[in-house]
Amino acid sequence: MDSSTSPFEPQRPVRAATLLLTACAVWAACVAYTLYLNPEVAHYVGGARIKTAWARMLTERHSPKTVVFGGSSCEFSIDGERLLNLYQLPVANFGGHAGMGAALIAESALGELRSGDTLIVAVEPGLLTGTADQTSLGIQFSVATHHPEWVLRPALGVEEASWIQVLVALRPGGYHTFTLLGKLIRGQPLYRYQLRDYRVSGWAQTAARYPFNDPEPYPASLSTNGRKLLEQLSAWCQERGIHVAYSLPWCYTPPEDVAKFKTVNAELLTQIAPIMAVLNDTRLGTDSDRSHFADTNYHLNESGTDLRCAEFAQALKSWQSRLP
Amino acid sequence: MNFAEFRFWGYLLAGLAVVLLARLLARSLPEARRATFDKLGLLALGWFLLFCVSKTTFVVFLIVAVGSFAGLKWLLTHDPKRHRHYVWVLIPLQLLPLAYYKYANFAANQVLGLDLLSLKVLAIPVGISFYTFQKVAFVIDTLAFRQPLPRFLDYMNFAGFFPQIVAGPIERRSDLLPQMEAFRFRWSLHDFNVGTGWIVVGLFFKLCLADNLAGHFDGTSHTNAYLIWMANLIFGLRIYYDFAGYSLIALGLGRCLGIKLTLNFRSPYASSSSIEFWHRWHITLSQWFRDYIYVPLGGGRVVWWAFNVALVFVASGIWHGAGWNFMLWGAVHGTALILNRLLGPRLKLPTPIGWLLTMATSFGAWLAFYETRTEVLFEKAKALLTPRAYNLTALHEALQSWGNAGGFVMICFLVLSSGVLLTEWLSVRKTDQPYRLFFRPAVLIALIILIVVLAPGKNNGFIYFAF
Q: Considering only CB atoms, which residues of chain A are within 8 Å of chain B?
């Protein structure tokens, strides 16, 4: 059928300009929603304020300090208050949502580093062995915290996002819209975590307890992007007189899988070691005690954090004592 | 030419701006030359956009297009009386690039087992199946209807009109060529508004429905009949919204330029028989097979009509891809059509029953379309056809996998997709114009809102680019 024979041609032609203006108006509304109302973005923006305030306090009173960054495993396991009070280690936690991407979380941590500080990379192996595209959540977070340069002109030289990518990312998208709708219908909180879950140092804890799956396997070799990120971080720190090391995050691992994951992690560490120092960890990132974890296999609870901080403090002090 | 990418629209606007600026500078030319100038502008724009897709695509297109024209010209000028014999040489020559890029790997490595690596890594130029078929049709139509050879410039615009070159609709000489011969950059507000409407509906189909459904396709289960049916359902809806979306955008872009292209889909999932389905799905390809294979073989009026149907559908399957699964897909549809023709008049099923059977066949057959691993394909088909596979344990497993947040989102998109199909069905029932209701101003505005809010950040490419 020829389209011209169809009666779609309206009696009063639909004005293309009206459609274009509608699109622009809706887009603007989406941007406003994403930056100011989106519960997930708002949570991480609030968390970033807390973390930055703690880091600045340490800069003022306890320099040189240590900045740790990684995905949510870092956010849920490194308690700056505990490390300062019990182990006299001034540590700022810049852990974030893994969905933001390792490079973006790294960018957010770099701004608080000063010469003489230490940077601990505690990124989950899955983020270093997979692809590292700019993610929507990462872009949303960077713009909402007034740091679009983290994605448009990243200091670490990872792939830049274009303005178009940024604009496209500043919308909720189908998945977010409908999950939000589902939560509203079921009367659930709009985001799993609350701002009050953050402690003063930016360490996060949650009362939520969900059954979680066993850890997903990942390759035993760094991806090109993962390697590049570590190399760029190392070079960036070296230029600025900042010490840098890698620390494996802890992950709940069923006892029968411990040997397998230890082997994979050991292989990864041998690839990371030529790029940057690696903090000692006899567990090689595995923890088989389920009572240490909260709602996912990477989120430590209070007792897990207690143990992790103790071992982390020991490893950090031991490494720092050997620094020239 | 991925209409779902901003890059395409950027290139299009930039290219169009250059052409129109040049046109402005050349406004003192005489009228006849300005007409030629416009056609050259359209050709340059099309070539530029095709070149942006890939150099290989552009070069292969030129070889097929120019080769077809040159061959036809040679036939018409050197031996006009015996050209019917030479056409059997020219058409295989036209099909040669398609055969090489699309079927050489399958023939050499899978059928003959030669294990040639150079063929395994061969990339198929985008749209080769579409424009090759259009050129073959052009040659046949020109010779069969004793049409004159058009001007080369008009032919090249016919052969490479950018909205439809990479994924159709496969246009015929009688429909598109006269429009190209009369082409001018005239800006009709009416055409522009109608074209914009088509583009909005197409973008809604692609970005909002197809791309979101794509994220919920899960073909990992080999044995759970419920999960396999869900994968078939998601894939069937996705491919419709993906391909129809592309076709509607092409229609709209053409219309904005004053060119009327053929509607390639007419709400196929509103069909209540297999025969009707194939009058509504990928219409220009169905018509191509009907006119250039089915009818020349005797069509439906000969004793061996069932063989003709089977041949056409297996050929249609092979057109879609080089693989046993595509042949099976074609064979399933061919069988359904034969049964429909044999039993339909006798059984006279109520329309809802006919619709259910047609949908079961269509969505069941999508399994053979997306599952390229032959062994897995048969394992899944066995699960679908085994009554025991529909047990409570399997149902429980399926419900569990849909019970999370992702499952809820999937159901939301299925509901939205079903609403769209229902709207199409209502339109078809009233006027046989499936997309009529979408053109109401309020609906178009609602579609724009849904596109902006719901489109995922990443697009998945168009499935039919692979063909």
A: 1-4, 6-10, 12-16, 18-19, 22-23, 26-27, 30, 136, 164, 168-169, 171-175, 177-179, 181-182
